[in-house]
Amino acid sequence: MIPAFMAVTSVDWQSGHTAVVAASCRETRKKTERGIRMRSIMSLMVMIIACLTIVTRANAEETPVRATIDSDGVQRVVVLGGGYFLRPKHIIVKVNVPVELKVSKEPGWVPHNIAMDSPEAGMAFEVSLSEEPKLVRFSATKTGTFPIYCSKKLLFFSSHREKGMEGRVEVIE
Ligand SMILES: [Cu+2]
């Protein structure tokens, strides 16, 4: 036999009505209140963790990525594009050292590309992105900061670049 108050408690636990329990057993009410408090604390913690994750991700996107110079003297960076971002947004390369960008796009039907239009600095290309990575090779010939972006634009909508698919290549000595 299950005592009456315990039966009420289990019903209460699912429906969330504390009033029934309050009438049946004080001890049970205390436990229930503790349970509810625990659950609010838990959901608060989940929210805090979620917020921290978003902040960390936003920072990660803004953190400059310096190209690693491999033993063959080529500096390589992996770049991912999608709706509507470029990751990383800020790439640092050394001047007059060959660069190889390994570019790809996130899955999806929206077409994207990666482009630079700074011929004066040795960086001018437009490569359509696919999920399969492609290599873009160039050597920056001038120091400074130059835009890198997706040049796609659908009819009268704003360009992907305007929507956030833009970053910068910083060329240093
Ligand atoms: Cu795009």
Walk me through the structure.
With 173 residues, the protein is α/β, with parallel strands linked by helices. It has two domains: 4-61, no CATH class; 64-172, Sandwich (Immunoglobulin-like). It has three helices and eleven strands; from the N terminus they run αααβββββββββββ. Strands 2, 3, 4, 6 and 9 form a five-stranded mixed beta sheet that branches. α1 packs antiparallel against α2 (18-24) and α2 runs antiparallel to α3. The longest helix is centred in the first third of the chain and has 37 residues, at 26-62. The chain is elongated and about 80 Å long. It starts with a helix and ends with a strand. Mean pLDDT is 81; it is low at 3-23. Copper (II) ion (CU) binds at residues 112, 150, 152, 160, 165.
